[in-house]
Amino acid sequence: MKQLFPAKQVMGFVFSLILTAIALAVYFLDVSFTAGLTILIVTAFVQALLQLIVFMHAGETKDKWSIYGNVYFMIFIALITIFGTLFLFSWDM
Amino acid sequence: MEFFERFAIPHPSPVIYASMVVIALTVIAIIAGLTYFKKWGYLWREWLTTVDHKRIGLMYLISALLMLFRGGVDAIMMRAQLAAPDNKLLDAQHYNEIFTTHGVVMIIFMAMPFIFAFMNYIVPLQIGARDVAFPRLNAISFWLFFMGAMLFNISFVIGGSPDAGWTSYFPLAGNEFSESVGTNYYMIAIQISGLGSLMTGINMITTIMKMRAPGMTMMKMPMFTWATLVANLIIVTVFPVLTVALAMGTMDRLFATNFFTSANGGMDMLWANLFWVWGHPEVYILILPAFGIYSEIISTFSSKNLYGYKSMVASMVIISVLSCLVWAHHFFTMGQGAASNSFFSITTMAIAVPTGVKIFNWLFTMWRGKIRFTVPMLYSIGFIPLFTIGGVTGVMLAMSAADYQYHNTMFLVAHFHNTIIPGVVFAMLAGLTYYWPKMFGFMLNERIGKWTFWLLSIGFVLAFFPMYITGLDGQARRMYTYSEATGFGTLNMISFIGAGIMAIAFALIVYNVYYSIRYSPRDIGSDPWDARTLEWATNTPVPEYNFAISPQVNSIQPFWDAKKKGHVLFPDKLDKIHMPNNSGMPFILCSIFFVWGFSFVFAIWPLVILSTIGIFACLALRSFEKDHGRYISVEEVKETEEKTGGAKL
Amino acid sequence: MKIDHSQPLEYSTGQNNLNIFGFWIFLGAEIMLFATLFTTFFTLEHRTGNGPTGAEIFEITPVLIETILLLTSSFVIGLGIHAMRLGNKKAMITFFSITLLLGLGFLGFEIFEFVHYVHIGAGLQTSAFTASLLTTLGTHGAHVTFGLFWGLSIILQVKKRGLTPETANKSFIFSLYWHFLDVVWIFIFSFIYLKGMM
């Protein structure tokens, strides 16, 4: 039975619950918008990395550099799309 | 509108009625022909169900050529209308429909399948693979593209063509200003073929990253393969953006949502924004494979290794990133601030740097080479100065302050045709002539080919250079006429003559195919151009398994080394070959997609639901299917190799 | 077909490797798909027209329950893949079934949430904000729904055919998909709900 619950994944799960709890602080505690957004950005991206590495086994084969490269490239362009659009429509208009 | 009214053409004209008759007659003729010659079985077994990358490539090629003529007719009609001031050949509505379909057909249904044709046919051969990574998915990609194209093309006889421009900006494309189903066709047809493009992107990246012949490291890949890899990376990056934008546009039109409307908080410019987040990288998706083809051709016919291989690769990678950073230069005049305009101005101009690097690399490849002026080489040499002019005017357009003068004028139209025609169309024709012997086993006639090249180049210059002048003088694009007082008449007449010369050139291509089928010699071997890369190391016609033995690669030009330096290309012994089975599923699935799209356009919901169920049923069947492919035995391989003249065993 | 026994089943054939690699590329496209939805949402977030704002309609309880359900399901399917690598078919099927049940629970809550929004006057057609909100959530929800059917068909195949290179490959790819949906939800949870309620 025990071997069905590997420590690494259980730890990963516990950690992701903790991250969720930290993120909830922005709702339950009285934090400023900037501080709140910072907390959310950090917790969300750490959680995403956690899923990627611990649960999705992104780095387990010799293709790991292509896989990471692809994912990071997409995240990079995704952020450019999001912030570029906000730049045009919200911050510079 | 009433249900049945939607199917009628909103602006009928004798031309459209004539087209209906022609379409009906063509369909009847095809059906009758297939029945009379008993070719239904052949069509089904050899083409509709095929998963062979070469056959799929050829089907892309044929579709692209058909669409080239379809879009070309639109172009001639536009130039004819504008040839004289206050011309009455077309009315405003008809003109709107024509420039819209011209743009969509040329970009999505001509240029895209043309590059996919070469990617499909050439890339697996260049990397020494037996097929692409997902042959079945490849067939689905093609049929999705095909059904999307067909759906788009029936619009002008059923329900009316889209008329809001190929960019379909809201609010013009919204229900308020575009009542007919035309824009629904635009949204759905591009959606369907866009799905196919995305799948091709995934397929090609996986193929190139994982299926290269032994010894072919990333930095030993042929330049066309590199270009394909980078272009497909951009496809996978930006096509989802188009998917979402089209879906939201569809919802605005059919479900009364408020993404791009002028009420309830909707924002029309968001459509333009998302469209160009896809649209600008899209032009690099087209031009990079074209660059790849030029690289192959220039290297072959200069009898030299490609100059500056590493900088060629680096510049393409830089272009791929920059291409996603420039989209706002399509709407500098939207009203955003100077900061964002400056940012997008600078990124746009920066693209000229890696592109310039490539231009110089081609020139240095030719420098002191033994140049053979064949037809493909002529196109490549013509491309360099003409494309450079297009690029330089692009830098002019990139300056956001000056853009207020150029925006939406014929100057812009001249610019992008100046990049796309010498850039992409010349490359496609060069590639077509270059790879024709590999595909069909005989060469296209050189003399007719040279005539075609010169007519096309002269026609192109006559057709588009006057637009730079009229554009700077203020002639707006997408206007169906102009008054005599503007003085644009003469220059537009020159454009029309140029367009006519281009039409003759395109007709010559058809004649060349006919002439060459009849008279070209067939004993040309498998390497008629004395080329350098692996695709020429196969037999002609290429057997379905491509290479009887996996080639061993030592450099970026293994075939050249095998011919001149004694490199052993096929060191292994013959073994049985594993190949995928044919399947009718892709064709059936995509036919259901066609029904789905058609019923979506006309909001026939019961049929939408039925066909959606049909699509998922196909997916489920595929999931439960057991298909391990088949083996070709050693004896069979030997037999095929002898028949196709393979002396390499 | 050559089977390489030194690798886990899901990587044991050439085609299996291609499938997994190709699916990673597909996930890259999915990143861009959801990024575009987020782009739209962030642009239209405050354009509420005559409709309600996010702060007015969001409620923390159902959102938190949905989050916990999906996080747990992502963990459980990870256990399922671990069990598969141990060759324990029964445990694997159990874990996969629990995953799908949790997914079903998530979906139930989301449907409830949607009905509630429509009920309080925040339907798809109300404003640019509601359209982008419901489309983003709906796209994620549609992915989960598709995942439920997909997962079910994989469980049936594993049950019938056992752990073969093909079924193991499909299961692994499905797990990637499911984890990815969890990642997307984390971003929805953080930047649509929590940011909206902040």
UniProtKB/TrEMBL annotation, chain A:
Its main location: membrane. Keywords: Cell membrane, Membrane, Oxidoreductase, Transmembrane, Transmembrane helix. It comes from the Bacteria. One of its GO terms (cellular component) is cytochrome o ubiquinol oxidase complex. GO terms for molecular function: cytochrome bo3 ubiquinol oxidase activity; oxidoreductase activity, acting on diphenols and related substances as donors, oxygen as acceptor; proton transmembrane transporter activity. One of its GO terms (biological process) is electron transport coupled proton transport. Its EC number is 1.10.3.-. The keyword Zinc-finger does not apply. It is found in: Cell membrane. It is a multi-pass membrane protein. Coiled coil: none annotated. It catalyses: 2 a quinol + O2 = 2 a quinone + 2 H2O. InterPro entries: Cyt_c_oxidase_su4_prok (IPR005171), Cytochrome_c_oxidase_bac_sub4 (IPR050968), QoxD (IPR014250). The chain crosses the membrane at residues 12-29, 35-55, 67-91. The keyword Magnesium does not apply. Belongs to the cytochrome c oxidase bacterial subunit 4 family. Catalyzes quinol oxidation with the concomitant reduction of oxygen to water. PANTHER family: CYTOCHROME BO(3) UBIQUINOL OXIDASE SUBUNIT 4. This is Quinol oxidase subunit 4. It comes from Cytobacillus praedii. The lineage of its organism: Bacteria, Bacillati, Bacillota, Bacilli, Bacillales.
TrEMBL record, chain B:
It comes from Cytobacillus praedii. Belongs to the heme-copper respiratory oxidase family. The gene is qoxB. Gene3D superfamilies: Cytochrome c oxidase-like, subunit I domain. Its EC number is 1.10.3.-. The keyword NADP does not apply. Keywords: Cell membrane, Copper, Electron transport, Heme, Hydrogen ion transport, Ion transport, Iron, Membrane, Metal-binding, Oxidoreductase, Respiratory chain, Translocase, Transmembrane, Transmembrane helix, Transport. Signal peptide: none annotated. The lineage of its organism: Bacteria, Bacillati, Bacillota, Bacilli, Bacillales. It is an enzyme of class 1 (oxidoreductase). Catalyzes quinol oxidation with the concomitant reduction of oxygen to water. Heme A3. Its cofactor is ferriheme a; Cu cation. It is found in: Cell membrane. Pathway: Energy metabolism; oxidative phosphorylation. GO terms for cellular component: plasma membrane; respiratory chain complex. GO terms for molecular function: copper ion binding; cytochrome-c oxidase activity; heme binding; oxidoreductase activity, acting on diphenols and related substances as donors, oxygen as acceptor. Residues 38-554 form the Cytochrome oxidase subunit I profile domain. InterPro entries: Cyt_c_oxase-like_su1_dom, Cyt_c_oxase-like_su1_sf, Cyt_C_Oxase_1, Cyt_c_Oxase_su1_BS, QoxB. One of its GO terms (biological process) is electron transport coupled proton transport. This is Quinol oxidase subunit 1.
UniProtKB/TrEMBL annotation, chain C:
It catalyses: 2 a quinol + O2 = 2 a quinone + 2 H2O. It is an enzyme of class 1 (oxidoreductase). It is a multi-pass membrane protein. GO terms for biological process: aerobic electron transport chain; ATP synthesis coupled electron transport. Its EC number is 1.10.3.-. The keyword Metal-binding does not apply. GO terms for molecular function: cytochrome-c oxidase activity; oxidoreductase activity. The chain crosses the membrane at residues 21-43, 63-81, 93-112, 132-156, 176-194. One of its GO terms (cellular component) is plasma membrane. Belongs to the cytochrome c oxidase subunit 3 family. PANTHER family: CYTOCHROME BO(3) UBIQUINOL OXIDASE SUBUNIT 3 (PTHR11403:SF2), CYTOCHROME C OXIDASE SUBUNIT III (PTHR11403). This is Quinol oxidase subunit 3. It comes from Cytobacillus praedii. The lineage of its organism: Bacteria, Bacillati, Bacillota, Bacilli, Bacillales.
